[in-house]
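Usage

Read records sequentially. Each one opens with the input sequence:
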Amino acid sequence: MGLPEEDRMLQALGLGPAEEVVYTTLLACPAASAQELARQSGLDEAETARILLDLTARGLAAVATESAAPDSDGCEVDLRPARYRLTPPSVALAPLLVAQRNALYQAETAFSMLTEQYRTTNAQTAGGVMEVVVGVEQVAHRFHQLQCGAQRELLAFLVGAPIAVPREEADVSESSALDRGVDFRVVADKDYLDGHDVVRDVRAAITTGVELRLVDSLPLKMLVSDRERAMVPLVDMADSDGEPSAIVVHRSGLLTALVHLFEKEWAQARPIYTTTTGLREEPAADQQPTEEEREVLALLLAGISDRRAASQLGLSIRTVERRMRRLMDLAGVESRLQLGWHAARAGWL
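and closes with the structure output:
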């Protein structure tokens, strides 16, 4: 017979369905015979009797003490059917609970050992480091997963034609990441801007918060998510049908090398600025420091105070401070230390 969910709790302790029916039926009365329990539970009387004997042998039940009637010889003979009562569950079920806990502990230990063995084996064969993804839908799906799964940072190399992902899906994933506050830095090959509608898309991306820089060439396309996973298209490893393919690299020395490569290219890349007509690599004239501002910057970065710099240049302190403020605004920084770093990278000195 079937049991409702709440009546199957004892099966976790090793009792079968029929055993649990007899046990819970006997639980509701002080003592009962096999016949009475069979009638109340709906089980066969012979099966009920067998289960009662088994429960008694396991210490879960006991034969209730009954007074016996004397026979003709004066000996006491009990002709009544045996009656059973439960052993207190706090005593009888405790060993079963301990056994199940031990079994669970052993299963958890085996799970940990097998997981570690699998990880070690696959790491040695590179299966745990990277996976190959083949096909337009599969590549697009993994690309979408990497962008949507990022919580802190996305890094990308853009080379030539865009990655084989529908532009609409890429736009949605990118927008979702930016909305979550994910830092998105992109280094693009200069040839990337020659693609159809790419300039329009790049301008829109910069406007929404993507940081973009340009280099003359890049060794590969790439997307890195939270420095935990990276995706690299395999242009030269497409299958015979010409389907796009890519590798997804997981945390490893290889992933660390890819991140290092990105940071190196980023440091040497040229910032991209939006204009009313398109994009340009260098700031507009009014975004470049004037010669007078460069003079002030050179003195202050040499460790000369504002007052002394003003004296040497024949300026007021207020003018020196105003020029420094404009330089910091141009660089987009909040401290003179940051200004010095930006000035060195931008070639202002």
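Summary fields computed downstream for this record:
- Residues 130-280 form a domain with the Endonuclease; Chain A fold (CATH 3.30.870.10).
- The longest strand covers residues 183-189.
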